[in-house]
Amino acid sequence: MTIMTVQRSETARxxxxxxxxxxxxxxxxxxxxxxxxxxxxxxxxxxxxDRVQLSTLLNIKTGGCPEDCKYCSQSVHYExxxxxxxxxxxxxxxxxxxxxxxAGAQRFCMGAAWRELKDRDVPRIAAIVHEVRALGLETCMTxxxxxxxxxxxxxxxxxxYYNHNVDTSPEYYSEIITTRSYQxxxxxxxxVQEAGIKVCSGxxxxxxxxxxxxxxxxxxxxxLDPHPxxxxxxxxxxxxxxxxxxxxxxxxxxFVRTIAAARITMPRAVVRLSAGRQALSDEAQAxxxxxxxxxxxxxxxxxxxxxxxxxxxxxxxxxxxxxPTE
Length: 326
Fold this sequence. Notes:
This protein is of the alpha/beta class. Helix content is 40%, strand content 15%.
């Protein structure tokens, strides 16, 4: 048996969809350096460790969402000072995509504050996807729940990724959201996969959940078959007016542990540092990259919250000898 054959066999054994909660909790419990070492070795087997994908996120329809997600400024249930707005025009979205590409972004993500995609909006959304894809950018949409027919139309328009986060563990979910079930989220992910669209699904940590809940979130994602191609890990950004507006910022080392556990359990996924990066020091972000994060949201805004600007990110990349994914 050749060395190459052995390496292929070891890599194949890494790709599992039978992780148990206890196994993932055991990863979290590893000594910090041992956990990072294992995560980094896993990362190097599947990715260039010095490359990071740059994604830009644009809110194409702000506010007025009927869901009651306790972290979200766009919910109609909370007084956050955010007014509902119309769906942006195609020219506005195209201009933002052109600017994102000029700044170095490879993927352009678009989000609408909807509970679900309506059939009447599919032609407009499909046209937007087609236009952004024509610019040479990967496309991603997050529009809430969608049907199999809607997913097929988005696939035909050229949609690369669909984002639908599970947010947290099945057990803690009802503490955060009551207007949509956990199974609703899993059903939407299944619909996306059946349509042949890549799945972008992750969650938010720092919402008062336990470490077991963080492990439970990863258990859900890592036991999808196939795994999500993209896994965004968000740190809660407390927003005044929401039930979690007074939340405490999670310890950054616990955030790094979550990144490492995501990398080990989903070796081929692109793991993205998403919301909450402003609360992370440069040193904490460096640890995340070492632990297997290989994508960031890039630009000044994430839906309705702030994000480090692209010049600051590029300066950090230079200090860490990181380069954007080609």
